[in-house]
Amino acid sequence: MRLFPRLPPAVPPDFYSSRQDREWAQGRRFGVVIDAGSSGSRVQIYSWLDNAIAAQDATGEELYRTPAVEKGQRKGKEWTFKMHPGISTFTSRLEDLGKEHLKPLLDHALQLVPPPAVATTPLFLLATAGMRLLTPDMQRAILSETCRYARQYTEFLLPDCDLHIQVIDGETEGLYGWVALNYLLGGFDNPQDLASTARRSTYGFLDLGGASAQIAFAPNATEAEKHKDDLILLRLRSLDGHSREWKVFVTTWLGYGANEARKRYIEQLAKSQPKEELFTSDPCLPKNAQETFSPSPETSPAVLLVGTGDLKSCLLSLEPVLGKHLPCPDDPCFFGGVHTPLIDFDVNHFVGISEYWYSSNDVFELGGAYDYVTYSKKVAEFCTQNWPDTMIEIENGTYGKHVSPDKARKLCFKAAWVIEILHDGFGFPKIPQEELSSYNGTTDLIQGANRKGFDVPFQSVNEIDKVEISWTLGKMLLYASSEVLSDSPDPVGFGPYINNGKASFHLAGESQIAYPSNHIDFRRLSGMLLFMIMFAIVIWLLIGRNRRSWILTNVRSCGLCRQQRKVMNASGYYERILEEGSEPSIETITGKFELSEMRRIPVSQENLSRPLSERTNSIIMGHDSSSLTMSAQTRANSEASFLRDHEGHRSRSPFRQLQN
Fold first, then answer.
1. In the predicted model, what is the mean pLDDT of residues 550-568?
2. Residue 508 class from Cβ within 10 Å (0-12 exposed, 13-18 middle, 19+ buried)?
3. Is 289 annotated as a binding residue?
4. 3-class SS at 81?
């Protein structure tokens, strides 16, 4: 267990070319995540101000927020870099995995992370769809080689390969996406009621990829109680060290991504056509567009598709593909026989990424707030347009340089699949945008959503505040949050809300970070001191004027009596400091020193001729040696008597012993 924070090293002055970059990098931590997907691997470099420094500079509500994770460079797009193909293609040539695939990714990361910070920069490689299709032995071989090469080639922080380099399932990927989305939208910034999560509102997350579809959201209190066995407990830590928890439902539909769903759709379409037909009419293909498609080259013959571009018929053809008719082992199920709690659209507003965005924005430019009426109208117009005319528009750049003929040919199906899965699948209402009701969440979240335009039941996005929504951001936020010092015994990470012994809690970092027993939290100490001062002021005002005067009088008397008593002998000073009992006041020394006692002291003729004040001082201070000579025994008796008189009779003068 690491008890103290790892302070970021100083940045070399020659690493950054500009003064702004050097100032930005001071006190920063870095993290590297490689998203190993089916078609390629993408490295992303993130950074955040060291938690101890951020907490020291934070004021007000900033302390209640999670660490501010952002891109690994002040400006620019070099913080991410992608390599093709995916690592799952290296099963038969593991010896080439490092130099051909991993090396360019790691080299790119090393260009952005300052050299002194490399050893404290965590490296993660998390594999998704492509690696999930491999056998466990193949997965272990690729992951082991990845870890070996990364440790040999770099000095990135890689203490536990099982934690840092692994294949994650669809639920984990969806949960990381939910974390990233809510972080960017400020869903974790509400400091109200830290101990309770029942009323805290967040955004739901939808992801539609090529092979699977995912959903992650925090159900309302009623649904959360009904389905608590299906929820994931997510724990983050804010800069002040407090732990905050959310109950999240996450699930995935394998085979319901846009590409896999289209394969199943064409197989179904081919089976419904008579064998003597030379082609198959496809209502989900643009009008008069043709495509030869083979869903399974090994088992199914190629099918010639001719588009009719009929959106209404297309949606009807997609109903069996959605699988609402499949058995539901655990009610309720939305589609595909997969259990999902009911969605309260007054509480849960959703944001969709990936194909939700591409199918809405690439051609139709309708990315953002979703309006069923406008979207379906645009899709129908595009699909019914004659395909040769669409090809001319593509060649002229009407839809931009990113829209190819192949992408446009598949767009009718993908757009229709988005409509089908949103409304018949998840049950989103088909309400025009002008009729949408206002968001029914907390006031702060409403205002934040309105400012960013996220106050509708569903919308598609690609990035927020110029930061792409990626599940890798969610992973890095969890790690940065786990680095915050805390006296809480609960670690940062996620696990089953009801621990049934089947799944363990996934730690976000290497270890639980906790305050050492001798750690001093100066923020809490200052608060305690302020409370004590205020309490003392109140008591002082309540005790009354008489008691205050009595206390002040005794305090002054005690302050004056803190003096050292000195007794002279012939050879010099003998000093005694009273260690027990109360010290005599100045009145004890001078006020009770009687003149009648002075007359008993033999005084020389020379001293009589001096003024009275000088003679008194001379006698008291011992400057008249001729008249104040004492034997050693007399001095010893004088000291003993002095202590007895002081402890028992504060009113007696210690100088009375001199009269003998």
1. 59
2. buried
3. no
4. strand
Q: What is the pLDDT of residues 267-320, one digit of tens each?
A: 898 888 777 677 889 999 999 999 998 766 665 677 899 999 999 999 999 999
Query: Which residues, including other chains, have CB under 8 Å from residue 303's CB and lie 6 or more apart?
Result: 266, 269, 270, 280, 292, 293, 294, 295
Give residues with Cβ within 8 angstroms of 103, minimum separation 6.
149, 153
214 is in an annotated binding site: yes
Q: How many CB atoms lie within 10 A of CB 437?
A: 12
DSSP letter, residue 189: -
Written out in words, the top-level CATH class of the domain with range 170-470+488-503+511-517 is alpha beta
Q: Could you tell me the residue ranges of all domains in the chain?
A: 1-167, 170-470+488-503+511-517, 522-555, 557-659
Report, as residue numbers or ranges, the catalytic residues.
Answer: 173
| 1-167 and 170-470+488-503+511-517: identical CATH topology | yes
Amino acid at 177: G
pTM of the entire structure?
0.72
Q: Does the annotation place 563 within a ligand binding site?
A: no
Name the phi and psi angles at 150, rounded to 5. Answer: -65, -40
Q: Could you tell me the fold of the domain covering 1-167?
A: Nucleotidyltransferase; domain 5 (3.30.420)
Mean pLDDT, the chain, whole residue set = 79
User: 210, exposed or middle or buried, with CB in 10 Å at 0-12, 13-18, 19+?
Assistant: middle
Instruction: Render pLDDT for 439-456 as a digit per residue (tens, 0 to 9).
Output: 333 334 334 444 445 568
Is 213 annotated as contributing to ligand binding? yes
